[in-house]
Amino acid sequence: MEAGKALSRGSIGLLNQTSLAADAIDLNYDFHLDLVKVLTELVDEASPSDYAGARPPQRSYEQEIEGLELFAFRVKSRCFKCRVYMKFALVHGRLWLVSLHHDRPIKGDTR
Predict the structure, then answer these.
(1) Under a CB-based contact definition with an 8 Å cutoff, are residues 85 and 72 in contact?
(2) What percent of the chain has pLDDT over 70?
(3) Distance CA 36, CA 77 (A)
(4) pLDDT at 108
(5) Are 55 and 48 a contacting pair, CB within 8 Å?
(6) With bands split at pLDDT 50, 70 and 90, how would you rate the model's confidence at 104?
(7) Quick check: pTM over 0.85?
(8) Does the pLDDT at position 68 exceed 80?
(9) Interval 40-65: pLDDT, tens
(10) Higher pLDDT residue, 1 or 51?
């Protein structure tokens, strides 16, 4: 998977770092020290059935990744012992992390 390759190279871009850091505190991991490890585990755990994005994928409106497809997953995480939501984009071998937080399911959604 392209996301796994980007992570193994440490090729990660971050959007809205303040929000990502706050969500890391909520998930109880060190944003600066553990992010690559956490993302690698989540990408490894994710399966096609965990895909929670639109079909076709939404396009980003954020300046750094404008027009890129956004991939959203809801993954039952072994390390966090809960379901987490992550959204990212991929471009030129780089993973751009948009969000990573506790899953906040939509009302009526049973996934």
Answers:
(1) yes
(2) 95
(3) 15
(4) 59
(5) no
(6) confident
(7) yes
(8) yes
(9) 999 999 999 999 999 999 999 999 99
(10) 51
| CA distances, 108 to each of 45, 75, 100, 104 (Å) | 25, 18, 22, 12
The DSSP line for the chain is: -HHHHHHHTT-EEESSHHHHHHHHHHHTS-HHHHHHHHHHHHHHH--GGGB-S-SSPPB--SGGGTT-B-EEEEEEETTTTEEEEEEEEEETTEEEEEEEEE--PPTT---
Cα separation, 86 vs 39, whole angstroms: 9
**Structural domains in the chain plus CATH codes:** 2-102 (3.30.2310.40)
Kindly state the tokens that stand for 81.
């012992």
Q: CA-to-CA distance for 54 and 57, rounded, in angstroms?
A: 5
* 2 Cβ contact partners less than 8 Å away, ≥ 6 residues apart: 90, 93
Instruction: Name the one residue in this structure whose structure tokens are 């992550």.
Output: 86
Match 């998977």 to its residue by tokens.
1
Burial (0-12, 13-18, 19+ Cβ within 10 Å), 102: middle
